[in-house]
Specification:
112 residues; alpha+beta; five-stranded antiparallel beta sheet; 2 helices; 5 strands; Histidine_triad_HIT; Histidine_triad_CS; Histidine triad nucleotide-binding protein
Length: 112
């Protein structure tokens, strides 16, 4: 498989790492949209939120546990936004499940 995020998770492409364990990798976004902007991805390939099912959903719960831990470590007490895109019309640019975490600025609603 020629997946950019799978290559990052495997260590084949370097990232500015925020966190890593056996299940997930978190790294700073290369085009940040907020003073704090990092992504959290499962190391196992899941193409999009549409592919989450009973067999792989535990990784999503773990991702949110990791996000909460990182947010606490980064002192994001004023809040943060977690975004995932699904499919072309949803704005998904990399076909591997990933969650953007944005913080340290006021985030408008609704988003673009």
């Amino acid at each position: 498989m020629d997946c950019l995020f799978c290559k990052m998770a495997a260590g084949e492409i370097p990232v500015n790492k925020v966190y890593e364990d056996d299940t997930v990798l978190a790294f700073h976004d290369i085009d940040p949209q907020a003073p704090v902007h990092f992504l959290v991805i499962p190391k196992t390939h899941i193409g999009s939120p549409a592919e989450i099912n009973a067999e792989n959903s535990a990784v999503v719960a773990h991702i949110f546990e990791v996000i909460a831990q990182i947010a606490q470590e980064m002192n994001l007490e004023n809040g943060y936004r977690v975004v995932t895109n699904c499919g072309k019309d949803g704005g998904q640019s990399v076909p591997h499940l990933h969650f953007h975490v944005l913080a340290k600025r006021s985030l408008a609603w609704p988003p673009g």
